[in-house]
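ok so heres the complex, two chains, lmk if somethin looks off
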Amino acid sequence: MLEIKNLQASINKKTILKGVNLTIKPGELHAIMGPNGSGKSTLANVLSGKNGYEISGEVNYRGKSLNNISVDERAQKGIFLAFQYPLEIPGVNTNNFIKTSLNSIRKSKGKEELDTLAFLKLVKEKSSELGIDEKILSRQLNVGFSGGEKKKNEILQMKILDPNLSILDETDSGLDIDALKIVAKGVNSSRNNEKSFLVITHYQRLLDHIKPDFVHVLSDGKIIKTGCGGLAEELEKTGYKKLK
Amino acid sequence: MHNFEIDSTQIDKIKKITTEEKSFRIKNLEFFKATGFPNKRFEDWKFSDFKDIVDKNFKELDTKKVSSNIKKIDLLRDFEHNYILLLNGNLHSSNFDHEDKNKITINSYDKSIDYKRSKNPLVCLNHALAENGYSLEIDKGYKFNKVLVIYNLFTKDIKNKILNNKNKIKINEKSELHVIEYTINESKSKFINNVYESIVLEKNSKFKSLFIQSNKSDGFFHKFLKNKLSLNSEYLNLIFSSGLKFNKLDIECDLVEENSRCNILSALFLNENEHQEIKTLINHLAPNCKSNQKVKNVLSSNSKGVYQGKIYVKDIAQKTDAYQLSKALLLDDNTEFNSKPELEIYADDVKCSHGSTSGNIDHESLHYLMTRGLNREDSTKLLIKGFLSDIIEFIKNPKIKKFIESMLEKQINEH
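and the predicted structre for the whole thing:
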């Protein structure tokens, strides 16, 4: 699904990623943990195709290089990024936005666009599956949403857009236990042997609900340790310092 | 442009004119001639040098009368409405089939000469030469059932003309009127339209007006709007007049009695060398009045936007609540937005505030939308629509709202 070889990324002449290697196969869920400033969010941004980074190394998605592939094309090809801080977009209705988004992805795949009725049915289905109040969707995109509502909205978008590779950038930060369970449910109910996940987190508590196949520790722009789910528990006890 | 001479014999040609009116006109013509078109040395024109604009765009200009005619006009089908049809500013016809016609008086322009000397040369020019326009009066206690559309049609044969029009609307006690001024430009050549309009709101009356163009044009527009608001009256002006080469709206609102409320709201998408200015002067002359101004501009391709907003609060106008906000979104480096807020306050128990921001499209927001599969162009358009949308929310009638939304969308999509 995703193959990262010696990925280096710098912004404003500061090198953040210093040679990341990572391979995610279809059906796998990888977690990335690491201290503040280790480059976790940069990795998520670079994978989404965000402008402003100087990049070297290779990133291949489903066997093809992502070099020069724009942000929107990556999304159309099935890469989804759930933001750590979802942006507030005043004046844009959430439902209309998700519909436009879904239809531009469907269109790029040569699929028929969904009409409003079919779309609303899909929204109802997915939001009740996650236990999300669909009322928030008639409001302006993320405007006045609580931290939890914003994150739930990201997960709902993930469910509706149905990507192949989902990258969750600290989606669990700032969530209460109920919201955390909704996020976990969103991920678990999407898992199958075709879809892959890259879950970036600070804490082990999300990984109690989402069982990762692999846990990586990112520190100072490099993956310094890889293990199974048990690694997260170990880190929770010992912290990152001992690893260095 | 050289040698723009206004023929004072034109005043002689005006029929049925009293000696007083004639001397009023001649005096105003002299005022105009003393300065000519206002240039940037006039404080009120510092961001819109009208003389320079005229020089650059017109080789010749005249103020001679045009007598145009049209066979038929395509009325809007989007919502039911009454209408007035203006042909180059001249009252052509009207239709009030949805209303009690006994309550409505419509005439050609108001001949009164009860005006103070204006510092605005274009107002003087208008006072000297205007002989077209309309005058509308609504009787006491009458609320319109349907909106009134003022079709403001400019014909093909007005090349290099200056059209001076004078309009007046009077809404008597407890009456209510909603107006959409809909400008249609058939003219493919350059012309100037110079309008003086006064609106009088009597006690407990309400007036809402909305400006919009049907299409782009090479018209150069100046309108001076004088509004007088009495006890408990309410005025709302929604400005969506994108698509004109030049447009300056100079709005003066006198809140002369208590609890009157004035709202001036604008959402403009300026493109391709367009230049628009909104200048306001809100005079709080009585206690407990409220004024609210919100001006939003999106600027693209060499366009220029200006907002000069002044709030004046007289010493007796305690408990005034006055607010103004200007927000500009600049899409290109070659665009320009100027904002000049002014507060002049002589009362000590008031709430007055102003704010002004201008900036580019937020790249983080753009990135967020693009990660959901929308391309850069569609994401940008979505952000522009979002930026202007809160002004559209002031339109309560769903059909009219839809109509305005689709007009605005058309302008944004043409970008």
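quick notes: The first strand of chain A starts at residue 2 and ends at 11. thats all i got rn
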